[in-house]
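Work Package 3 committed the consortium to producing structural models of liganded targets before the mid-term review. Because experimental data for this complex are still outstanding, the team generated a predictive model from sequence and the ligand definition alone, so that downstream docking and mutagenesis planning could proceed in parallel. The input record is reproduced below exactly as it was submitted to the modelling pipeline, together with the SMILES string for adenosine-5'-diphosphate.
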Amino acid sequence: MALLEVRDLRLSFGGLKVLHDISFSVEKGAINSLIGPNGAGKTSLFNCLTGFYKPKGGSISLGGRPITGLPPHRITALGLARTFQNIRLFKEMTVLENAMSGQHCRSRHGIMSAILHLPAQRREEETIRAAGMRWLDFVGIEQHAHRRAGGLSYGDQRRLELARALASAPELILLDEPAAGLNEREKLDLVHLIRRIRDETGVTVLLIEHDMGLVMQVSEKIVVFDYGQKIADGPPEAVRKDPRVIEAYLGTED
Amino acid sequence: MTDEVRTMPTAGQPQLMRWSVVLPGLAALTCALVLPQFANAYVTEVATTALLYVVLCLGLNVVVGYAGLLDLGYAAFFAVGAYTSGILTAEFGFNFWLTIPVAMVAACVAGIIIGAPTLRLRSDYLAIVTLGFGEIVRIIARNLDITGGASGLIGIERPEIFGFRLMQVQHFYYAFLVLALLTAFVCLSVERSRMGRAWFYVRYDEDAAAGIGINRVTAKLQAYMMGAVIASVAGCLYAAKMTAISPESFTFNQSLLILLGVVLGGMGRIPGVVLGAVLVALLPEVLRGAGTYRPLVTAVALLAIMLFRPNGLWPDKRV
Ligand SMILES: Nc1ncnc2c1ncn2[C@@H]1O[C@H](COP(=O)(O)OP(=O)(O)O)[C@@H](O)[C@H]1O
Ligand SMILES: [Mg+2]
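The resulting structure, written out as tokens with the ligand in place, is given here.
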């Protein structure tokens, strides 16, 4: 059974149908991509998977458990983390505090044990902090731990969003256009980092990306969207040759 | 503006003592400790009021400064505490100290009744609902027999501790000082913990907070309830000091004044909030000489502060 199973997912806003009966799956340990022209519904699909949008129909399951319609924090706790297309960091807080936020759903001490300074609470704080540092180190920005997150360079902000998502100990991580706004060098680093996420931590990756070169290079399977419909699904070579994909991309920016 | 900000020191992390903070803090504490020995009854009375506002502003700061929720009826929880303690001691002969936990529970219940349905909605609704709640509590207090109606509740017992009865202004001054220190310690402990950080995450970006696994409704509800409990304890001690309370102590104006203290000093951080609270208590006294022009002078002074220090006099660096 696949890690992520999406069956006949439908979403609409008023009269506007954004997703038409989408079905696909992501195998555990894979790196898969979701591509398609602007407005095809990719981000909307991510919003359905992570509980931000309520689909009109269909089902989503993660590791065999149904997650359709659950609130975002429950879905994160069940092992699905995400980054946002427009970076959504806690800009006024430090880089480390941002990374530590991912650990919230993996820890449990509340107000009372904080007031009483219980030893178990202190230990947990230490664990949260260590995990935050570990993920900053993983993405390579630990030297900025005590800086204001909003003051990081654009590329480092993207890395921090990754660290924060990874800190929630996910099974599957969804990356929404992680290469947007990066230069060629930074894109190469990103490809390397995405591979390391899968190879070193075992986290499955599903990414949305516009850069075809990057997508072909990094993914084992590609799902193609156009106007809210899935028009192709398969390995990079097959998708590249698919006439419907070529047609969808003719005349667009790609 | 530099990129360096103060990290929230986290438990377990040995933190360098910052003398620039510790020394003025110690100096202020020493002054606070010896003040009644030198000051006359009037000054001690004003200082006691200032300490009451420190507690109330610290409590409201949990709601407004940490979690970013606009509460326009905070005095209602102050009233819940004062009336719970007052009624239990005056009408039922309870020991004062036993009324504190009862008042805390009452504030929690009231907090859940108001917060649980509203905190699911957009934050703007909370402002309206809390405004209404503040008025409802005051109107109930005006109209019930057990609360003494419009003229209020009289004959509230003075508390006793180890056989010593708190009577004079100085006694209550020290009682409020202890409560203020305790509240500051509690707020500081929570601010630096997992839950405190969660409030800041929610305040800065609710969607991102939900996306990384924080239940925003329960996080907000906990902030709201913690604020309620702090106000209720302040209310207990206030009732004991006054021995008589009336609905007029818990008006919308009172809520605004507390909110003003939080915003004036710079919400979010304890030193700024303490400063704001002291100013709110002192301003009317300092301006007594201005006679009938007092409201005007107060308004101008506040406007000037808001114009020239929009983030408060001693702002949270992260804003
Ligand atoms: N919250 C929303 N309300 C109304 N329409 C929306 C909303 N979110 C997305 N859409 C619409 O859904 C379509 C797909 O958008 P999106 O998922 O952002 O596309 P992509 O990420 O593939 O560029 C667009 O037409 C967009 O206007
Ligand atoms: Mg998009």
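Reviewers should note the following from the model. The two ends of chain A are 34 Å apart (CA to CA). These observations will guide the Year 2 experiments.
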